[in-house]
Specification:
Number of helices: 13
Distance between the termini: 73 Å
Largest sheet: 6 strands, parallel
Radius of gyration: 23 Å
Order of helices and strands: HHHHEHEHEHEEHEHEHEHEHEHEE
Mean pLDDT: 89
Strand content: 15-25%
Low-confidence stretches: 53-57
Strand order of the largest sheet: 2-1-3-4-5-11
Length: 346
């Protein structure tokens, strides 16, 4: 079995440097970190977490609380987090909360004392409850919602991402762009929908296009899935409102929209272009393949665990309230490369 000494020798660095990399500590150059990571992979080194826990008094078990895993975004995010945690020598315990505040709080009450840290995608927590959680166990929230509390948070660029999607459609000549997945309730737990709707408005404003309520489609549940996407698209088709493009606020909604359009004999993208948000594997293998906005899942996992490591190591003030917004990238595929004649209506 390889040791840290073996890794240090292979990488040509000191034992202390290897320890810093393994524990996710700062003050290590990216070049050195890559050398150490390469040596760890070559030697198949596995940190002895039990010995490290006894030595440092730190628990290397991290909780990952997600509302569910049925949406591709959450399952792929969990994979990224587990991959990054393994690199850092951390063990991840996944818990599902169904987005229920009591379940989120119960998780902390029951498992908090046994966890070294917690990553949570909160849905139901109030500002005060979020602060209570963060003060009970070292916590980083992966959340679109901005809490009025000094908690650490990693978020995706919701508003900027949808703005880029609309801009992409406009650059191709589309002018009657529908938005699929909106929410007008103002509920804090629907923060992602609110931000993406603002991004949609921003994109239209950039292009000098009017905001047309008839082209803005709400969905029936807080969960963005294929069924809701198909249902929303059918409503728009049946209304006969002319549209030439669809920006869906999640890939799952976009895939449902693709199904409904093809069901109605509407050609994508020759008559209607479609784009999604999340850039899941399903987007690559859809027919036609789906243009989508990648929200930086790997970066979200990396930044969230880096912030959490600081908390677990006690190297940051309790109420510092740090925020990291991940980068985004648009991947253009077949679903937006085609004609620009509006479909439907008289």
């Amino acid at each position: 079995m390889s040791t840290m000494h073996d890794v240090a020798q292979r990488a040509g660095v000191s034992l202390k440097t290897v320890s810093r990399v393994v524990n996710g500590e700062p003050n290590v150059s990216e070049q050195t970190r890559r050398k150490v990571d390469a040596a760890i992979a070559e030697l198949d080194f596995r940190p002895n977490s039990v010995a490290r826990n006894l030595r440092t008094g730190r628990i290397d078990l991290v909780g990952l609380a997600l509302p569910h895993l049925s949406q591709p975004y959450f399952s792929s995010l969990a994979e990224e987090i587990m991959r990054e945690a393994e690199r850092l020598g951390l063990t991840v315990l996944i818990e599902l909360t169904e987005g229920d505040a009591e379940a989120e709080l119960a998780l902390v009450r029951e498992h908090g004392p046994h966890l070294g840290g917690l990553l949570m995608y909160p849905v139901g927590l109030s500002d005060a409850q979020a602060l209570t959680v963060a003060r009970t166990v070292p916590t980083v929230f992966i959340s679109e919602r901005a809490y009025d509390a000094p908690v650490d948070r990693v978020a995706m660029a919701n508003r900027e991402g949808v703005r880029a999607l609309v801009g992409h459609m406009v650059s191709l000549g589309y002018t009657r762009i529908a938005a699929l997945g909106a929410d007008h309730t103002g509920r804090p737990e629907r923060a992602a929908a609110h931000l993406r709707l603002e991004g949609y408005r921003d994109g239209l404003r950039d292009a000098g296009l009017p905001y047309l309520p008839d082209l803005v489609l709400e969905v029936g549940t807080p969960h963005w899935n294929r069924q809701e996407g198909a249902t929303g698209m059918r409503r728009l088709i049946e209304a006969g409102t002319p549209f030439d493009a669809v920006v869906a606020f999640a890939d799952a909604l976009a895939l449902g929209a693709l199904h409904a359009l093809q069901e109605a004999g509407v050609r994508v993208p020759a008559e209607v272009a479609v784009a999604g948000f999340d850039d899941t594997d399903d987007a690559r293998y859809a027919h036609p393949s789906l243009t989508s906005l990648a929200p930086g899942r790997a970066q979200i996992a990396r930044e969230a665990l880096a912030l959490l490591n600081d908390r677990m190591n006690g190297t940051v003030e309790r109420d510092s309230g740090r925020l990291v917004v991940a980068d985004h990238q648009l991947t253009v595929r077949e679903s937006t490369l085609g004609g620009t004649a509006a479909w439907g209506g008289a």
